[in-house]
Amino acid sequence: MTLSIIEIAYLIAAVLFILGLRGLRAPESARQGIVMLECGMLIAISGTLLHMHIVRYEWIIAGMGMGTTIGVAMAVLIPMTKMPERIALSHAFGGLAAALVGSRSVIAIQGCCQRQKWLRLALRSCWAPSLLPGAWWPSASSREWLQSGR
Q: For the chain, does the N or the C end have fewer beta carbons within 10 angstroms?
């Protein structure tokens, strides 16, 4: 695919994201906003998959499968009454994904082969995943604190 088609897809996706977020401001337009956000995400993913540098799709399919599994598990196991915990956990997984993508980018660009570089990369990559319990704990403990009346 030519780069201009992909750029147009990204532009359309960005506009849909902005309009979708705007639609989430009011309960009456929230459903329409969610549909716009979903369409924007579909267009953005489709544009990315059309990029000429992608020659193998195994990791993309594996990532989509893992994300779907984690999302479904969160939807089933965490009730709607625990929305702060659910959002905190989603953000923590987003941080984990960013750490993994960043680590892979560093390896691809620098070609990390030396032990020191690997150690530094590992320590930097552990920062975001280490926030996973930290993201969950404040919302869970504050809810218990509020419910107990202390």
A: C
Query: Closest Cα partner for 124 from 101, 95, 103?
Result: 103
Domain boundaries, the chain: 80-150
Average pLDDT for residues 123-143, to the nearest whole number? 56
Q: Assign residue 112 a region: left if phi > 0, alpha if psi is -120 to 50, beta otherwise?
A: beta
When the pLDDT of each residue in the chain is averaged and rounded to a whole number, the result is: 76
114: left (phi over 0), alpha (psi -120 to 50) or beta: beta
Please give the Cα distance from 72 to 83 (Å, whole number): 15
Nearest to 109 by CA among 127, 121, 98: 121
